Amino acid sequence: MRTKQQGSRRFLAFILSVVFLTGLVLSGCGNTPSSNSDAGGTKQAESGTSSTVSGSDTAVEPKEAKIKTISTVNGDIEVPVHPQRIVAEEYLGSLIALQVIPVGAPGLTLNNYYFKEALAGVADSGVYGKPSAEGIMSLNPDLIITGNKDVYEMLSKIAPTLVIPYGQLKNVHEELTYFGALFGKEKEAKAWLADYDRRIMAAKAKVDAVIPADASFSIMEDAGKRILVYGDNFGRGGQPTYQALGRKPPAGIGDEIMEKQWAEISAELLEKYAGDYIIMTSNERTVADFQADTIWSSLPAVKNGHIYVWPEERSWYYDPLAVLAQTEELAEWLTKSAK
After folding, report:
1. Hey, which residues does 127 pair with through a beta bridge?
2. Using an 8 Å Cβ cutoff, are 171 and 239 in contact?
3. Which residues are registered as beta bridge partners of 262?
4. In the chain, at which residue ranges do the beta strands (DSSP E only) sit?
5. Looking at the predicted structure, is the pLDDT value of residue 236 above 90?
6. What is the largest CA-CA distance in the chain?
């Protein structure tokens, strides 16, 4: 028979047991977030350390580096889906149009009259057409873009190298569409081209309103003792004149000049290659100089003041930004010359 004292002791022991078990349960619940946090830290360490968003102290987990395979003249190559450090040996204008600013580019392209202000922080990667492996390597690129297939072996040892030979992309639409797909900026490329088409149409309408449809145009360069003639995809104003404004070369030379894209001619052949309008690249001579020259002054285009002279620093470039600016510049001149 239990005494009253024994019953009290057992009841007290029961109460203490309940309190102890309740404490264990609550302690276990309180430790759960800490355990998850540790697991999350382990996963983060496995996938890469956290990075800091520029201009913020907020740490975020970066996406895994991704690559994709694309077909090139050098076969299938792997390139980053979202390259961060691009060296653009060529096609710099297309990158700028898509707001993809590289870390490096040749000095010649950095001096592009039409967009050099957009490249204040871009490093000079060396001489155009003669890339320096050491200079490019110092920029630590994750993608190199070039138009020169002869330097592929050298550059591909530094980073994935995309070779797009000159002339493979034949116009502004092909170029912007290609790079829009490469960088996952299809919408941006489409929007840029829509604005480009609108401005080109406006420029063409101005020219068509004052210049006869059958007027012929020549793209020429005064290179000292040499006279050069160009087609529609070799700079010097060929793209804006023949492609954007839809103008034609003189009869009899169109097929030749469009196929070869450039030719050197003698003074005796000037009359054959000179159109009603001449777009002339010259670093030394002005319109007045051509009008004072015995040979050149005999051409109808020069007699009538239908010759436009600009320096190589403005006519050489043929990227989308340059073509747009050149087209509007030539349209302005043509409308004034017709008055």
Report:
1. 130
2. yes
3. 230
4. 51-52, 59-60, 67-72, 75-80, 86-88, 104-105, 123-124, 126-127, 130-131, 143-146, 161-163, 217-223, 226-230, 262-265, 277-281, 307-310
5. yes
6. 142
The strand pairing partners of 258, in sequence order, are none
Instruction: Take residue 328 and report the two structure tokens written for it.
Output: 């509007």
| Sequence-separated (6 or more) residues with CB below 8 Å from residue 328 | 199, 203
Average pLDDT value over all residues in the chain:
84
User: What pLDDT is attached to residue 64?
Assistant: 55
pLDDT in tens, 270-325: 999 999 999 999 999 999 999 999 999 999 999 999 999 999 999 999 999 999 99
Query: How many Å apart are CA 155 and CA 184, to the nearest integer?
Result: 24
Burial 1-33 (b: 16+ CB within 10 A, else e): eeeeeeeeeeeeeeeeeeeeeeeeeeeeeeeee
CA atoms within 13 A on the CB side of 304: 13
- The SS3 call for residue 101 is coil
Q: Which two tokens stand for residue 337?
A: 């010359």
- The answer to whether 233 and 241 have CB atoms below 8 angstroms apart is no
Q: Do the beta carbons of residue 219 and residue 248 sit within 8 Å?
A: no
**What does the alpha-carbon distance between residue 129 and residue 146 come to, in Å, rounded to a whole number?**
9
- Please check whether residue 74 is in contact with residue 149, taking contact to mean a CB–CB distance below 8 angstroms: yes
For 108, the token pair is 């010649």
